[in-house]
Write a structure and sequence with these properties.
Number of helices: 6
Oligomer: single chain
Helix content: over 70%
Largest sheet: none
Strand content: under 5%
Shape: elongated
Radius of gyration: 19 Å
Order of helices and strands: HHHHHH
Structural class: mainly alpha
Number of strands: 0
Distance between the termini: 18 Å
Length: 155
């Protein structure tokens, strides 16, 4: 059972995930630079006050559900390469699920001029940072055997 492993899988995944986060930060900075007047107000009459928190919560919850479903997707007979591919796919989807609401929160700030919505994008960035993919997280989530861990260390 000799399998060749893609040595750049984690580096590629980390570059993609970093690009998600960098895109949010750059867009946030552009909006802050372009904004004419900004204020901080929780206004119940503003539609964004409902949409942004709801989308933020949805993105976080769905990303955690996806993480739990990833564990169920792994079969004991899966090779390490198959597990890596599934982890990579799940991580990219998780990143996208968190990036979308963060970008919408930034757009809401730009449209309304309300700093309040930036809090949600910052929370989402923090969640993305905490879920940043690594070999250690993969080994923990995938519950790798000793043999698989030693192969993983060579990547």
């Amino acid at each position: 059972m000799n399998e060749t492993l893609n040595k750049g899988v984690f580096k590629t995944l980390q570059i993609i995930y970093s690009a998600f986060m960098f895109g949010i930060i750059v867009f946030l900075l552009v909006v802050l630079y372009q904004a004419k007047t900004l204020y901080f107000l929780i206004n119940i009459d503003d539609i964004f006050t409902i949409i942004v928190p709801l989308m933020t919560l949805s993105g976080i919850v769905v990303s955690f559900i996806l993480n739990n479903n990833f564990k169920k997707m792994l079969l004991p007979e899966d090779t390490l390469q198959v597990k890596l591919t599934k982890f990579q796919s799940a991580s990219i989807i998780k990143g996208a699920l968190l990036e979308g609401p963060a970008l919408i929160a930034i757009v809401a700030t730009f449209v309304s001029g309300n700093y309040f919505f930036l809090l949600f994008s910052i929370v989402l960035l923090l969640v993305m940072y905490l879920q940043f993919p690594s070999k250690q997280k993969f080994a923990q989530v995938a519950q790798l055997s000793f043999e698989e861990k030693s192969k993983l260390d060579t990547l």
